[in-house]
Amino acid sequence: MSSFVSLVCALDYIEDNLRRRITVNDVADASYASISHIQSMFMRTLHVSIGDYVAKRRLCLAARDLLDTQKRVTDIAFDFGYSNVESFIRAFKKQFLCTPLVYRKTYNFSELHPPLYIHQKEGFSMVKKYDLAAISEQILASRGTYVICVDIDQMLAINDEIGYAAGDAAIAETAGRIGRSIGEGMEYYRIGGDSFTVLTKSQDVEVAEAIAQRIVSFAEDDVMWSGGTFRFSLSMGIVKIPLTIKDAEDTLRRSEEAMIAAKHHGRNCYKVM
In whole angstroms, how large is the CA radius of gyration of the chain? Predict the structure, then answer.
């Protein structure tokens, strides 16, 4: 079996069994590969270990349970295989930068680490991608309204100079900044390694600009992580979804182009196109 098919099988198995106990042996068996080979594939293609990927995905489902159910935090912890609620709270706070109870009261977003899928390019190279089906459907249903592409400035430097744990903290903090800036009924999605898209559901560009201005205002906030504190900024691109839209990816591409223009303008700002 090809490495591509093995990796697809592994990701499908993990996604189907997140509420059950998953071992590396289970993933290897499901992917028809040796343990060493599938572990190597995860690190080389997804840049994450099997254990870390499973843990991040489980915490995202736990976050969804916090938002969609009235289950106790203790029950959710046990549902996802934690031996005690304290270890669950520590892991949750590390990923989402807040406790489960604070999250339940203040957030409406759970897919901080959405499921990945693999795209095989020409030849033998593979790239990880996020499933954009959900946001594409929402874009097509939101004709005439504005979207905002939000991207972390100098993410590569954060990972290289501070560490990947700081990079994960920046991603979680970005989701928090967006959540604190948008209005009721608005939605946002993580669409890439360091990128989010906000659906404002508004036909007023001033509403989109006000959101972007609020997000910019957080740039001086200290971000806590296990190694101390750091600061980072965000650049944004704002575009209108055409009334005659046929392809959601075109809107995503245009918003990304506007975001790149904001970075060229000096970062920590937004550009309307």
Answer: 19
